[in-house]
Design goal:
With 410 residues, the chain is mainly α. It has 23 helices and 2 strands. The chain has a two-stranded antiparallel sheet with strand order 1-2.
Length: 410
């Protein structure tokens, strides 16, 4: 180790100088003479030319050598040059190349071609391979035959297609670093116990790419037990598994707390609303709930009003604070709706303000001003119906009656 440090220090001597006598002796900065690329080129011309030929600037090279001086010891012809050329051929730009090397400099010292060729053999495109490398470059340092191939073969053996596997690895490249015997295979067995058929196993894995990375025996099966113990029918739990699996991947403690809270609100565990409420509360923090409650409260909603709204539309707490403010202000102050009216048509809160609420209101407002329709018409109902139905009921119909055209803005 001492010999290595001495050798690297000797090579860097031309590049580095101490910051000051008052600073730590081992902290260095590049000397002002290093700003001139000529000095670096004179010291290591082949290395410098290689990096520069692949788009790395003098600053990038300087930073790389400062942070990873071992690069100076890399075998230029047999590993460093072939690896950099391979990475560039995959479409990794000079900026991303610098990031990848900085994240995992060891890729310059090993034969990364073997890993790339393995991915190609399993039908990964070069574009997909480059994306995986940029997301998780450490995979290039794994022995492909020993660590990567067995996992890819296993994924094929359970019925995943090449396209399925490439999507899975693109989304969660860390899946290939998991133990085959201790993680992947046990996880698939748990999924089998939960869903019952091979086709559903594949459906589950494809719908949630990070599923195989969990301790499913503890997390997934534990959470299913928590829900059934609180009276949730298994049929409803199964719906949750496919519709919003992330809820079942919360820690057991977190889900228990949420389920108790939903039960305390008086929502029946035998309803879909119970699952929707559980999903919402498990995906937001207490502080987020309080902030959104404050926004609703600013429009006069009491705690009881908010709970009532949440019980009929749990998703009301997934709306951004900005949109809550915009929607409530418009419904109450511009359209003159009341909270009881909103409670009857709560889905209006989920619609796009710019694409639906505002354009439709511009049509309704004209019709009201011309006494074509009454003010007490269910305006919120008009906001909820389909585009086709709205056009027929409020545009085409009254265009004929009045002989005028009311434009529905898009």
């Amino acid at each position: 180790m001492a010999a290595m440090f001495h050798l690297v220090s000797k090579r860097l001597h031309h590049f580095l100088k101490p910051i000051s006598a008052s600073t730590t002796n081992h902290v260095y900065l590049f000397s002002s003479s290093c700003v001139n690329s000529t000095h670096l080129s004179d010291e290591h011309p082949p290395l410098m030319n290689l990096f520069k030929s692949h788009g790395l600037t003098h600053t990038h090279i300087k930073n790389l050598i400062t942070d990873h001086p071992g690069i100076l010891q890399a075998d230029l012809e047999n590993t460093l040059k072939p690896n950099i050329e391979l990475l560039s051929s995959l479409g990794i730009s000079h900026l991303n190349l610098e990031k990848v090397i900085s994240l995992r400099p060891r890729i310059l010292f090993v034969d990364i071609l073997q890993v790339v060729e393995l991915f190609r053999a399993y039908c990964f495109s070069d574009n997909q391979i480059s994306t995986i490398i940029m997301k998780y470059p450490v995979l290039l340092t794994y022995k492909p035959g020993k660590y990567l191939k067995p996992k890819l073969d296993y994924l094929i053996s359970i019925g995943l297609s090449s396209e399925d596997i490439s999507r899975l690895v693109l989304a969660e490249p860390t899946i290939l670093t998991r133990s085959l015997e201790n993680q992947l295979m046990p996880s698939v067995e748990v999924i089998r116990r939960v869903v019952g058929s091979e086709s559903r196993v594949l459906k589950a894995i494809k719908s949630c790419h990070r599923l195989l990375g969990y301790n499913l025996e503890k997390v997934l099966e534990g959470n299913i037990t928590i829900l059934t113990n609180h009276g949730v029918p298994r049929s409803i739990v199964d719906k949750l598994f496919y519709i919003h699996m992330n809820t079942l991947l919360n820690s057991n403690g977190r889900l228990t707390k949420v389920v108790v809270r939903v039960s305390d609100l008086g929502i029946s565990p035998k309803t879909n609303t119970f699952i929707l409420a559980t999903r919402v509360l498990s995906s937001i923090s207490d502080s987020v709930w309080e902030r959104k409650k404050d926004v609703y409260s600013s429009f006069g909603l009491s705690e009881e009003n908010l709970i009532t709204l949440f019980k009929v539309l749990p998703s009301c707490m997934l709306i951004s604070e900005k949109k809550i403010n915009k929607m409530m202000n418009f419904l109450l102050n511009e359209m003159k709706c009341t909270f009881p009216c909103i409670l009857k048509q709560p889905l209006v809160l989920l619609h796009s303000f710019e694409k639906r609420i505002l354009p439709r209101w511009s049509v309704l407002r004209v019709l009201i001003s011309k006494d074509v329709i009454k003010k007490d018409i269910s305006l919120l109902y008009a906001m909820r119906i389909s585009e086709k139905r709205f056009f027929e009921k409020f545009v085409v119909k009254y265009e004929k009656v009045r002989g005028e055209k009311v434009a529905l803005q898009s």
